[in-house]
Amino acid sequence: MRVVLAEDLFLLREGLVNLLQAHGFEIVAAVESGPELSRALLEERPDVAVVDVRLPPTFTDEGLQAALAARRAVPGLPVLVLSQHVEQLYARELLADGTGGVGYLLKDRVFNAAQFVDAVRRVAGGGTAMDPDVIAKLMASNVRDEPVGRLTPRERDVLALMAEGRSNAAIAQRLYLSESAVAKHTANIFGKLGLAASDDDNRRVLAVLAYLNGSRR
Amino acid sequence: MLLRTSKGFGRSLVLVTLALADALLCALAAVVMVLSFGLGMVFLFPATIRLVRRRTALARRIARSWSGVDIADPYRPPPPPPVPQADGWYREGRSLYRTSLVPSFNRALDWMLKDPATWRDLAWVFGQPILGAAVTAVPVIMVAGSVAGLVATGRPLETAAGVLLAVAGLFLAPHTVRLHGRWTELLLAPTEKARLTNELRRVDQARTIIVDVQAAELRRIERDLHDGAQARLVAIGMTLGAAEELVETDPQAARALIAKARDASATSLIELRRMVRGIHPPVLAERGLGDAVRALALDSPLAVTVSVDLPGRSAAPVESAAYFVVSELLTNASRHSGAASVTIDISHRGPALRITVTDDGQGGADPARGSGLRGIERRLAAFDGVLALHSPRGGPTTATVELPHAFQGHAARRAVPAGWRTKLMGVCFGLCWLPLFPQGLVPIVLKIAGVDERSWFLALYLPEPWQWPTLLGMIALGAGMLAFAVAEQSRWKASESNA
Hints:
Number of strands of chain A: 6
Order of helices and strands of chain A: EHEHEHEHEHEHHHHHH
Radius of gyration of chain B: 37 Å
Number of domains of chain B: 4
Oligomer: heterodimer
Shape of chain A: globular
Structural class of chain A: alpha/beta
Number of helices of chain B: 15
Structural class of chain B: alpha+beta
Radius of gyration of chain A: 17 Å
Shape of chain B: extended
Number of domains of chain A: 2
């Protein structure tokens, strides 16, 4: 799998390169600034890009802007955005086009190599990987709203994991439930939120995120 | 019209009466001055000056509401009360006092004697019975005198003259009231020096507050780092050291320790993240005020609507102050007001940044009680910003924040002119004298004087019938260029002052 990596801190960049190479990814470009990233994304057309939000030269949100621009040019280009902090605002911008293949994780998540690599694979496959922190914030700001407020605590746990981009099997494993129980919960959630049920993991996640995303505005 | 003149006449009457009554105050002041400085009875002085200040305060109020002359208080701020020493005695110079009576009297006396405004006040009071009365008495004497002296005679001609004079007096009345306001302003307004001194004092206070706030902030950050991240890093180092020792003998335990170290590093990251947010929120650094407030709105438990209209980014310190002010106002709204929805409007007018935060809560917020609101004012003071709070019982609460110089840099940058109009203005300014003088006025003078000298005056080389139209055309061209340049410059200046 071909990966473009953008990270300005040398140690972290090397660490990520080693980590991904160890898990069988091919690093086609490891860059350290916004303009370089834009060029690499459009020239290399990687299977997935792992991008730091804050990059030189301006040290603002160069990485995010480059990723968004590239996704406008190449719809659905899989991008996993890493950051020292997560913001609902950025998550909403990444999800806005509704095509999937996006991830938004805290940098801390690379501590757990297996989970991080899993997230990269999921994004590369057109799925989503949202940081639990973002989901918690999205859920918190929706908790007063009627439909989310009607969910049981268990259903809310399932919704949060679903929004992170996990499959029914993964949710079952995390919550120590059977897969059929998870399926029942998800059916309930979709019913209560008035969303169309779907088998496809990715479409399911996008529906949830669109719901969480849209209900405030 | 009638209302205005009669109101003016009534006011003249009041002012005359007051001015004449001031004669009493003059007499009192004169006696006190003699007693104070002649016989050393200085204890009378402050009380008299306080009386005089009350009178001048009244005069300023009258000038504001009747003459439309806004006069600020010129006085220096009163001295702070004396502070007792550790043993409870008050020290002043080389003397010790048991109570604060004498030291505080000395301070008050010193404050009054050294303030030029005191002497200007006195000058005004002494001028009142003469100058003040003279100014305002004119219409009163005209009306009263003509009614008493001329109309009463009953002879038609003199009656007519009396009526005319009385009417003239009535018309004069509002003007004399305004004139009296000017006279008051002349002596009771702060001098430029007093104004600047007061301004400097205010700036100095603001600076002290800023330095204090910053020092406190730095201490807080230092403490957080010391107790938090630093301590955790030490713990991580120790855990890793222990793991290193165990890795040969007990790999199982070593692995557990390493996992523990990883958890600790994750925790310290979370802690650092929270700290960074408190120092300078990342979104603010990355996106500026508008998006930072939007992010704040998304994280708020309330339904927050944000509208932003900004020309660009302002200086980082201003942005940061504005952000924390909005954050504080939003916290207040969710914590105290019981509001369900909040509207935040961020806009700019010229170089000023204006933020309005409106909630639909129960209102009744009082800046005197909330330390949060005082903190906001302190933060704003550093940038000459102000907070206006409108919070009637029952709501809604509207807080308006204005930072007057937020976009100063932008205005300066925008003022750099560009475009063909400006270039043309430069050309016109540079060349307008050419058709005007050497090709216009000078050859006209030569032609009229009949000097046969053509030099480089183009018009004089033309055949006779063309000469005059060409000369006049040259002058018209030069004048036109000058007029355009001047008009363009004033337009540019106007747009600059609007910006």
